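Give me the fold.
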Amino acid sequence: MAVIVGLRDMFTTKTVCGTLKEGDRLDGKTVFVDGSSSGLGFAIAVGVARRGANVIMACRSGIPGKGEEVKRLSGNPNIHMIPVDLSDFNAISRLVSQISDPSSLIPHPDIFILNAGIVPSKARQTPQGLEEMFMVNYFSKFVFIRLLLQQGILGIPNSVSRVIFVTSESHRNPEAINWEGFGEYREYGIKKSMELYGYYKLLLVTFARELSRRLNPGNTINTAVFAMCPGPVNSNIAREAPSFFQPLLKIIFGLFFKSPQKAAIPVVYLTASEDMKGKPFDYLFLMSRQEIDEKAADPMNGRKLWELSDALLDKIHP
């Protein structure tokens, strides 16, 4: 599917929604980026650092080396790294405690970029007994946001200006959201993994839209919520594919997929551009504005997803 999207992107003319200008700066702002030790997340961290942001890199690995590399590439010394394993509820809880601690040397985030994602070769259980891809690609985002709301970091006017979700056009692929057995652990292999990747992106876009409704009731705009698809990215997300596929994947990724640096441009645009002021929600595919899938846009689906996610959170963390 990603190869098809890559080919389509090469030969399709799109209406560009705007451009990232030299004057779109982030001086004095603190930008949080998860999954930022490699690939797209690393390129995003470099991109926002070059525009003057203080950057918080939340990573499972690469500490402190990747932070030092961001400093070198951006010329910005204001880079902070926090270790986190997004498959573990307790690690996410510690992360929120660190960024909410008023005595911490880490500055309070103004903008959150939630980028981390995985495509595992098979199902794996998390420390709380959930399925790892479900946890990392969707539920960790919900848990993180709910903890931010509880701590008063998010949800208070003028506390956080933007929340940006890196999602995928593959959120359109599933026919429906399956509410039965929500969050239950199930075994699967690599073929099912690719299907579930799009399904969890559907949950993520649905959540992003619902979050905007809750943060921006009526005509108020307290915190903008944006989602975007960067298109196929030449990253290490398929590192768990079978070894005999790896040489072919390397060729395909090199020919048809964007470099992380190019793929990061729309994310940096959503983070820094003055064009995005006054918008409670938006979705971009590359630099083109699109409507999200109707399943993700449906307020009833948004409410139900939030309620089931809340119930699951209460179950694993009473």
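The beta strands are 30-34, 54-59, 79-83, 111-114, 162-166, 224-229, 281-285, 288-289.
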